[in-house]
Amino acid sequence: MSSQLPYQSDSDTPFAAPGQTPESRADTHPHSSILHRRRVSCALGLMAAFALAGCQTPAVDPAAASTPDEPEPSRPFFDNFEGDAIDTSKWEVATWYEHAGQTGTERTYIEDGMLHLLIVNDSEAGVLSSAIQTWDTFLYGRWEARLKPSNVSGVLNSMYTIDWNGGDGTRQEIDIEFLTYTFGDDSAEVHLAVHAANRDSWNSDVVLDFNPSDDFHVWGFDITPEYIQWFVDDQVLYTYHYDEKPVTVDAPYQLKFNTRSQPGWIRGPAEPDVESIYQIDWIRFTPAAQVAP
Ligand SMILES: [Ca+2]
User: Fold this and answer.
1) What is residue 10's predicted lDDT score, i.e. its pLDDT?
2) Which of 2.60.120.200, 3.40.50.10490, 3.60.20.10, 2.30.30.240 is the CATH number of 43-290?
3) Fewest C-beta atoms under 10 Å: which of 63, 118, 178, 254?
């Protein structure tokens, strides 16, 4: 089931902190070299993606890391969120104000091998939220994350791509968004969307026969030169063909998770002082050419 909704981009709110570029990119940083191969569905399209991407080899020298102008689309990415702290060579942890909430490192942390993103409607301080985004940029390939959204009604938990680039990007964006007010007994919706600056948005609410906050599932999307395909575990949720839709994704982007709240669309804020926790066990990017058939 799908429906057209008003523009609801995860990047639709300006980032207010002076001098900060929240969707910024790093100049140098190390890379994960872990590569996993699984699942399939679009090997031919992904092979084409690889051809278009120029068949670059993965970077192994931090000094050769990407810049905003030179994405390295064949580089894999993986984080299992082990240890005591977020790997800040891979991730920029948000500390700015976005989407009507104040993000902060104290609400963005690792515990029991999971990334935790906490949001609370603090009765004194207002909405205190959290967000994290890759330093690196990516293009065609498969994103997968084993995650479990919060069960607190009135918040949004997201996994999305964004070409922000300090405000100068295309703002092309691919979304998976969990609106927790839709969660019920063995039922829910997941909101899928594609946005870009100066383009109409596309949105779809896919009805699920389970509650995503009951257990961990692997959520993700394939991004190819021809289409985007969202999935949960081995189930395809939607295939978005560019030739039938308003936005084509063709620019490098960062991968971001956040949790936020607002009235209206998200039906927030949540009950005062109730902590909402979004957990992510691991995340992986498999470049197009390395997705197993
Ligand atoms: Ca983990």
Assistant:
1) 54
2) 2.60.120.200
3) 63
Helix (H, G, I), strand (E, B) or coil at 62: helix
pLDDT digits (tens, 9 = 90+) for 195-220: 999 999 999 999 999 999 999 999 99
Most confident of the ranges 11-15, 110-114, 162-166: 110-114
d(CA 141, CA 289): 8
Closest by CA position to 203, among listed 234, 235, 179, 168: 179
Using DSSP, state whether 163 is helix, strand or coil. Answer: coil
Determine contact, residues 261/270, Cβ cutoff 8 Å: yes
Q: Ligand 1 mean position to 149 CA, how many Å? A: 15
pTM of the model as a whole: 0.78
Amino acid at site 123: S
Residue 209 neighbours by CB under 8 Å, 6+ apart: 186, 187
* pLDDT reading at 226 higher than 50: yes
Ligand 1 geometric centre to CA of 90 (Å): 15
CB 231 within 8 A of CB 219: yes
